[in-house]
Amino acid sequence: MAATVLVTGGAGFVGSHICDRLIERGDKVICLDNFFTGRMANIAHLKDHSQFQLVDHDIVHPITLDADRIYNMACPASPVAYQYNPIKTIKTSTLGMINMLGLAKRCKARILQASTSEVYGDPIVHPQTEDYWGHVNPLGPRSCYDEGKRVAESLCMNYHLAHQLEIRIVRIFNTYGPRMDPNDGRVISNFITQALKGEPLTVYGDGSQTRSFCYVDDLVRGIMALMDQGIHTGPVNIGNPGEYTMLELAEQVLKATGSKSTIDFRPLPQDDPKQRCPDITRAKTMLKWEPQIPLAEGLEKTVHYYRQQLGIE
Ligand code: NAD
Ligand code: UDP
């Protein structure tokens, strides 16, 4: 029988792709979003589907509905967006998490929390394994996001221990692809829009910091495999271990767009992590998952989407 699945943050970049995959396999989807960073355009194609329901709601406030499974994706993910109203970001990851865990408890639903590589902060262990406790500045400008997500993980584990709630925690590493808001301020959306407009690419710092970029289809496949498996409760890294400096990424974007844009070096934001790369041994062994789409191929698909969005052929 088809499951009823609640996707919070379902109008966002990642959440909307999860809605698509669930509808494709015949589940009933309740997409809940407050449209802070989400966009109606991401779910417009689903709105008239008989198995799709949209709820305009903020998870910071309790809600009563029925679901068999919950993907808790709601939370701004771009540093620009989550630092816009840091207190609200903390409320979303704490009060919002409590509300979703309470809902899961009442419905006896399995709940998956979208955690992040940011729980590792500016990591000293490299690549990051799930048993690394992290290196987070609790007072810095990123702490509203990092510490909020750390509390959210703790809440999940404590609801599991106290109430036997079925929880899943995915630690998502930098993900990119179609439906990422061109204006959201993250590095790939910035570089591609700048390259397509012929503007300089804004590299923060000297561009030697690294990130590992996962194409959204790979990520969503991993997240759904984690939700569907019946045993493992602890956190699982999902990301692509291909690691690039921001200067290398800029070169890849110039190649993918055929742009002649120059590089404009800007100040490095405070507490910007110097390196980030997932150890995905756990996902490989437990979920039989690994990413399939290399950066060059993913960038090509993403550039195609941004050209359409920006009306640049
Ligand atoms: P996004 O900003 O595109 O999507 C987040 C969605 O949540 C948006 O639709 C937004 O409107 C909604 N939202 C925010 N606060 C809400 C609230 N209080 N109530 C209801 N809805 C709310 O970001 P994304 O990249 O799709 O990220 C989705 C999730 O994955 C987030 O929880 C994020 O922290 C996590 N994550 C993403 C990445 C990544 O690289 N994309 C990396 C690590 C973790
Ligand atoms: N960055 C950059 N130029 C930009 C936006 C970001 O050089 O226009 C850098 C940023 O300083 C960080 C990396 O790119 O080192 C990834 O930033 P993003 O905001 O995408 O995600 P983060 O991993 O920092 O949360």
UniProtKB/TrEMBL annotation:
CDD domains xref list: UGD_SDR_e (cd05230)
Record's signal peptide: none
Main location per the UniProt record: cytoplasm
MF GO annotations: isomerase activity; NAD+ binding; UDP-glucuronate decarboxylase activity
Cofactor(s) required, per the database record: NAD(+)
EC number in record: 4.1.1.35
Compartment(s) of residence: Cytoplasm; Golgi apparatus, Golgi stack membrane
Domain NAD(P)-binding as annotated: residue spans: 6-302
Gene Ontology cellular component list: cytoplasm
UniProt pathway annotation: Nucleotide-sugar biosynthesis; UDP-alpha-D-xylose biosynthesis; UDP-alpha-D-xylose from UDP-alpha-D-glucuronate: step 1/1
Protein name per Swiss-Prot or TrEMBL: UDP-glucuronate decarboxylase
Record organism: Planctopirus ephydatiae
